Amino acid sequence: MGHKFAEIAFTETIRILQTEMGSRTGYADMDEGEDYNNLMSTVESNFIAARDSFYMATVSETGWPYVQHRGGPPGFVKVLNANTIGFADYAGNRQYVSTGNLLKNDRISLFFMDYPNRRRLKILGRVSLVPSDDLETLTQLEDDHFRAPVERAFLIKIEAFDWNCPKYITPRYTEEDVEALITPLQKKFDLLRRGDQPSQTLPKVPNEIGAGPLPLVITAIRQEAENIRSYELCHPDGAALPPVKAGAHIQVPVVTSSGDAIWRFYSICSDPAQQNHYRIAVLNQPGGRGGSSALHSEYQVGMRLACYRPDNYFALQSEKHKKGAKAVFIAGGIGITPIRAMVFEAEKNGYAYVLHYAARSNKSSAFTGDFTSLRDRAYIYFSEEDERLDLHRIFAAATADTIHYLCAPPAMLQAARFTAQKMGLKPSSLIFEAFKE
Ligand SMILES: Cc1cc2nc3c(=O)[nH]c(=O)nc-3n(C[C@H](O)[C@H](O)[C@H](O)COP(=O)(O)OP(=O)(O)OC[C@H]3O[C@@H](n4cnc5c(N)ncnc54)[C@H](O)[C@@H]3O)c2cc1C
């Protein structure tokens, strides 16, 4: 009972070795309690759905492990339910080593890598081979973008999974990742080459900035939407970061266009349970004093930021949710950042919740893909498609103990306050994050 990955991976000999090396007590807690890390949450499902490759180990009848790399378009590994994944197998080099091994021993070990974000998901499971005449399962596993004939498919019952520490994962980038990062720089370069001045000249930012007590390094940058970039921040030594709860924010040192070193606040939008990194997502606001623009155009992977420890004025009222109170998350635009972390926390703890996320369009909004698998728990409204988030309807569905968490632009927050007051909602049932210092 307890952590399923530890239960399988920590054999008798390994436990003796851990005792000899002094690490057993640190892992002992994993043996206690209900089974866990055997059913995937949306975090694992979404992670797998975004991967374009993985490594797969099988064991031969002579006891030799065999590791194979499998690749395909992102999402070619299908998540069928919380403990079943699968993928279609197309004709390859016809050695059939993995397939042959699996006929004798159905155990499998998988590594899913996210190099830019330095994340690694390990899976242990048992495989069944789907024969070519099981058309129903094959159709579920077939990839829409790959039209070669499917020879068979692999169906994997997950027995355990675990996440790895990012310490020795070197960030690597695909062509698409690199293009998203260099396109804005290329445009700026083209302007300069033509002799034009970019509209706002920003001072060169040093490679180390800030004077806070928490050293962080940017380990990955992602273009999440048209004007939104996310930054993954890790401890330079790979050490665990101070624990946070959903709703937390961190102060980041920024150099403005006038050269002033100032601080900007950013909500931590990553899963709060992840202690190996924080992720922040920043909307570029060219009309401002230049903090967000500097982050977008000057901040690079490898830059070191001496930040302050995270703070939280927008935490979930966990005690109430543990007792069954429903959480209603309402996000507008970049306000999705703290709410995303709240969705992770609510999912992990089994709280009743629903998410309403209003944005202009798919291409201008971050993280919409994270919520598509949540079905009846997540609603996304794109104003450019004439979809409206109806505050009146949301508030009308509230019961006496429902708590609403809102993070959105000022106009939407104002509308929410007004509507809630008019409908007689208790002020304590609404908690706001206005992105105001
Ligand atoms: C707790 C907290 C969490 C936050 N989380 C996030 C997050 O996750 N993502 C994110 O992108 N941002 C977040 N913010 C906002 C962020 O801290 C910055 O304010 C934002 O990045 C803009 O910074 P800037 O320097 O580019 O612009 P700013 O100078 O801060 O300007 C921002 C906007 O305000 C207007 N403005 C500036 N000064 C004035 C003024 N004197 N009068 C009227 N209007 C003015 C500007 O025109 C501009 O449109 C958060 C803020 C807080 C307090």
Question: How does the SSE layout of this entry go?
Answer:
Layout: H1 4-9, H2 12-21, H3 24-28, H4 42-49, E1 53-59, E2 65-71, E3 78-81, E4 84-90, H5 97-104, E5 107-114, E6 119-130, H6 135-141, E7 150-163, H7 175-193, E8 208-209, E9 214-225, E10 228-234, E11 249-255, E12 261-267, E13 278-283, H8 291-298, E14 304-307, H9 318-322, E15 327-332, H10 336-349, E16 353-359, H11 368-371, E17 378-382, H12 391-396, E18 403-407, H13 410-422, E19 430-433
Flavin-adenine dinucleotide binds next to strand 12, strand 13 and helix 8.
Keywords: 2Fe-2S, Flavoprotein, Iron, Iron-sulfur, Metal-binding
Protein name: Pyridoxamine 5'-phosphate oxidase
Organism: Paremcibacter congregatus
State the fourth-level CATH superfamily of the largest domain: Translation factors
Give the count of helical stretches.
Answer: 13
Q: Please state the overall shape, judged from the principal axes of the Cα atoms.
A: globular
What is the CATH architecture annotation of the largest domain?
Answer: Beta Barrel
Mean pLDDT: 89
Number of domains: 3
Q: What molecules are bound to this protein? A: flavin-adenine dinucleotide
Q: Structural class of the secondary elements?
A: alpha/beta
Rg value: 24 Å
Find the CATH topology of the largest domain.
Answer: Elongation Factor Tu (Ef-tu), domain 3
Percent range for β-strand residues: 25-35%
The unreliable regions are: none
The CATH C-level class name of the largest domain = Mainly Beta
Number of strands: 19
Share of residues in helices:
25-40%
Query: Distance N terminus to C terminus?
Result: 46 Å
- The main sheet orders its strands as 2-1-5-6-7-4-3
Largest sheet: 7 strands, antiparallel
Pfam family, one: FAD_binding_6
Keywords: 2Fe-2S, Flavoprotein, Iron, Iron-sulfur, Metal-binding
Organism: Paremcibacter congregatus
Protein name: Pyridoxamine 5'-phosphate oxidase
